[in-house]
Design a protein that fits this description.
- Helices cover 79% and strands 3% of the residues.
- It is built from 11 helices and 2 strands.
- It has a two-stranded antiparallel ribbon.
- A hairpin with a 2-residue loop joins β1 and β2 (36-39).
- The longest helix is centred in the C-terminal third of the chain and has 33 residues, at 240-272.
- The protein is flat, with a radius of gyration of 23 Å.
């Protein structure tokens, strides 16, 4: 299945680029929290990946990466961390800002196509459950870490928390229980609401955009700048995993929720407007559903006409 960039696709790309520029150049799309900021630019990337496939996601992710790099120089909303990284090494700073966002858009486009290609209804319900398990696990870790910040905003693990984390069996079983519980909740909610496959696919794409953006961004940060005094100072002797979770916990969760909630209805609207290039099977199902609805409406109107004739007699 190839993405065709026609006039409508180019207009959509232009519109999404304008939104990324607006979010990057004004305070609308950024909520600063310490050295990091909550960004809404993952939303246009998710919509591009949904509507235009992997190539569209790659293009919009690249646009996001370029604007993110410009913010390091104070063009738009200044990134404190970005400015410091540019002083250390501007080339590595560009790679750290650009590559994760471009790769994010590309992979989300592939994920969306993969989910829409599933033929079994239960299979994409299961995927929703897995996404819910990931979110519940991240929420649990973030909430647990937030309880260990002192009044000055510095992380300090309590003795009780340290005992819990270092008791591997208790910690692992607790994480598994929370993940399974969230999986069951997500599966139940989606199956009971009778959401369409396109709605589920868009929601999964939105969630994965925020999740992968955080994973790729922080991985590149640690790999490229982990040996610098700046990052070592931020880590404060913590392990890499603990540093990442404690550093981006709330930011990542907020981005996941917002991207999921917004991408789902927007993607569904684009699908109804025939702006999304989906697998032929999904298009066929949609046509069959429309014809079935039309038959129901016609049969309903026919029965009403017969009842009206009987009343006249």
């Amino acid at each position: 299945m190839k993405t065709k960039f026609n006039t409508r696709s180019m207009v959509l790309l232009g519109l999404l680029t304008a939104i990324v520029a607006l979010f990057s150049l004004t305070p609308i799309g950024s909520i600063p929290i310490g050295p990091l900021s909550i960004t809404l630019n993952v939303i246009p990337v998710a919509i591009a990946a949904v509507a235009l496939g992997p190539i569209g996601g790659l293009i919009m992710g690249s646009v996001f990466g370029i604007f993110s790099y410009l913010q390091c120089f104070g063009i738009g909303v200044l990134s404190g961390m970005g400015a410091t990284l540019v002083e250390i090494d501007p080339v590595l700073a560009f790679i750290q800002r650009f590559v994760p966002r471009a790769l994010d858009g590309l992979l989300v486009g592939l994920i969306f196509r993969g989910v829409t290609s599933l033929k079994s209804v239960r299979s994409y319900y299961i995927i929703t459950g897995i996404v819910s398990a990931f979110f519940g696990f991240a929420l649990f870790l973030s909430g647990m870490l937030l309880l260990n910040y002192d009044e000055n905003g510095k992380y300090k693990m309590s003795e009780t928390m340290y005992s819990f984390v270092t008791t591997k069996s208790l910690f692992v079983y607790t994480c598994l229980f929370i993940s399974v519980l969230c999986f069951a909740i997500g599966y139940k909610i989606v199956s009971s609401k009778n959401l369409t496959q396109i709605q589920v696919s868009c929601a999964v794409a939105g969630f994965c955009t925020a999740l992968l953006n955080t994973i790729f961004f922080m991985t590149a940060l640690v790999m490229l700048f982990g040996n610098t005094d700046y990052i070592k100072g931020l880590m404060g002797g913590k392990s890499i995993l603990l540093f990442i979770v404690s550093f981006v916990g709330i930011n990542a969760l907020f981005e996941m929720v917002v991207a999921t909630v917004i991408t789902c209805p927007v993607g569904n609207a684009l699908f109804k407007a025939k702006l999304i290039d989906t697998p032929a099977a999904l298009k066929t199902d949609s046509k069959e559903q429309q014809s079935a609805d039309a038959k129901k409406n016609s049969s309903g109107s026919g029965s009403k006409n017969r009842n009206n004739k009987k009343k006249k007699k």
